[in-house]
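Repro:
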Amino acid sequence: MNLLLIGILLAIIAVAYQIGLTRSKSIAGKGNSSAILHSRPGYYGSLVALWCGIPAAILLLLWNIAEPAILRHIALGQLPAHVLNALSTAEVDVLLRRVQAIASGFGVSDTAQAYELAAAAKLKTYQSVALIAKFTVIISVALFGLAYARQRISQQYRARNQVEKAVSIALALCSGIAILTTLGIVMSMLSEALHFFDFVSPMDFFFGTEWSPGFSTTGSAEGSYGLLPLLWGTLMVSIIALAVAVPVGLMTAIYLAEYAKPRFRAIVKPIIEILAGIPTIVYGVFALMVIGPFFHTLGNTLGMNVNATSALTAGFVMGIMIIPFVSSLSDDIITQVPRSLRDGSLGLGATKSETILKVVMPAALPGVVGAFLLAASRAIGETMIVVLAAGNSPLLHGNPLEAVSTVTVTIVNQLTGDTDFASPQSLVAFALGLTLFVITLGLNIVALYIVRKYREQYE
């Protein structure tokens, strides 16, 4: 029913915009000239829509937050006191769920008690009343806001200022939500990671060279939890991926932006960007069934031992996957470099290649670095390709032709199965996730420093 109410509210907001727009145009007079109005008619329509929608939306949000607690209190009040006193807190919750199931019409698997049926009947009545009250109150608030804002429309009313202030507040709230979400993710990982370090020493975790976690039913940390084999495997696969994606993607971007004809560019660029839309599990299967056996056969031909599942296989396919991130973003940045810079360089006698190398690329460097950073972050955080193609061998070695394991693969392994969520075997996944976050943050800091340095030199 909430969706129906939201749909009705959106329809009223749309009507409110048209009412505000029509009202402002009628005040403007013949020809709908907005010269005598402080703001353009669209601002007045937006103002009426905001006054109609924002109070009603806030009330709907608060209502949905408070309603479950109120209905729970009502349901508890309908149950006999001697029954509640004989139950624990968990049992009371089970009883309330039974009452709610009966009230919703789904019923329960066994025979319901008489007091459960009576409480469910009362709860259903209150739910119906609450639903009618919700529709009535929220729609009334929306209509009242519509009428109030419409009456305030006048020639001198500063509708633009009000609308822009509301938009600024909305943007600030969105930014705050993004920041708070990031902090929430970090704090949740940090708390669980600290709990993990109660079982395993941070020194053993960050500097250990052996990964062999033991699964036990006692909750103790058996085995070895050394991070270095996983971290090195992640870096090895990512380096191979970037070695494939960065030169190919950057050269593709330079060709499409500077050398290719518009018709050819319009055809090829969307084809390249299709690679970004392919699910990663498809890349993983492609690596496992095609690229891995191909590298193994090629290695045998050259007299080399190349495993079908290895860092090379996973990194190569991952590099193909992130080519669109590098090429598309770099192409967009290169094409945004002002034409006057190219013309000035060519007018001074530089060749096209020299202009690209010494003028266009320095000007586009901040965006290109951002593209590289996005590609690196994508490679470090990739899971499905390495799950299928890397081999899942957490050994510390420097041979890319052998199987490796990565941090993301290990997180998947540790959080699957029937292990206790509070055990170190599961909590280690949060420590690994926090490590990936710190690595990504470090990449951002380094990239920001490089961008600022070269931007200052260029300016």
